[in-house]
């Protein structure tokens, strides 16, 4: 499993900046988003991803042929599903998956956490906790309620990845509050809609020591 994923890479220079900063996963967004890339773009960009960095394809309710085409073009190591895909659909591409669980700002109760059988059907190796605004999960720039995210982490049978409104100014507090296995960021490391290498570097420098040394887990 990765520790730090930067999502929304849209160029080879984005990849180079993320790798230089210490990211060990980069996300290619194939869902509707300002950071969306098409499979041909992704295939070109993916050639610059070194073998020790995971390529993650991000989808939301995409047809099977779109997912399969992106997997081939980008040689995805992981698939991240952010829509309402059935567990069996997520697990049908012979690639390990990350399932997204959206939490709204006003959610005070523990959402339904996938059980072991559902995780197995989806080939899920992690559960990503992200912010939900209306019907949209992810890409909102809004933080999740950390208390609820911590409850999800405690109940999950697979590692939890924390996303949602993270940026250099809050990521340390977020990790200490939730104790995730990994973090995922996009909006909080952008300027003018593009990844900012300096902000990416600052974000990773602050969070990686916590995730690597186990400080986030109180050890």
Commentary on this structure:
The protein has 219 residues and is of the alpha/beta class. It has one domain (4-211): TIM Barrel. It contains eight helices and eleven strands. The protein has helices at residues 12-21, 39-46, 64-74, 87-90, 116-121, 146-155, 171-178, 197-213, and strands spanning 4-7, 25-29, 54-59, 78-81, 97-104, 124-133, 136-137, 160-162, 182-185, 190-191, 194-195. The strands form two sheets. It has an eight-stranded parallel β-barrel, surrounded by five helices. The chain has a two-stranded antiparallel sheet with strand order 10-11. A hairpin with a 2-residue loop joins strand 10 (190-191) and strand 11. It starts with a strand and ends in a 6-residue tail after the last helix.
Quaternary structure type: single chain
Q: Helix proportion of residues, in percent?
A: 25-40%
Helix and strand pattern: EHEHEHEHEHEEHEHEEEH
Characterize the overall form: globular
Which secondary-structure class do the elements indicate?
alpha/beta
CATH class: Alpha Beta
Outline the biggest β-sheet: 8 strands, parallel, barrel
**What name goes with the CATH superfamily?**
Aldolase class I
DSSP summary: helix tally: 8
Main sheet: which strands, in order across? 1-2-3-4-5-6-8-9
Q: Unreliable stretches, pLDDT < 50, 5 or more residues?
A: 215-219
- Average pLDDT, all residues: 90
Q: Give me the count of strands.
A: 11
Taken together, the total number of domains comes to 1
Proportion of strand residues: 15-25%
CATH fold topology: TIM Barrel
Distance between the termini: 20 Å
Question: What's the gyration radius in Å?
Answer: 16 Å
Task: Name the CATH architecture.
Answer: Alpha-Beta Barrel
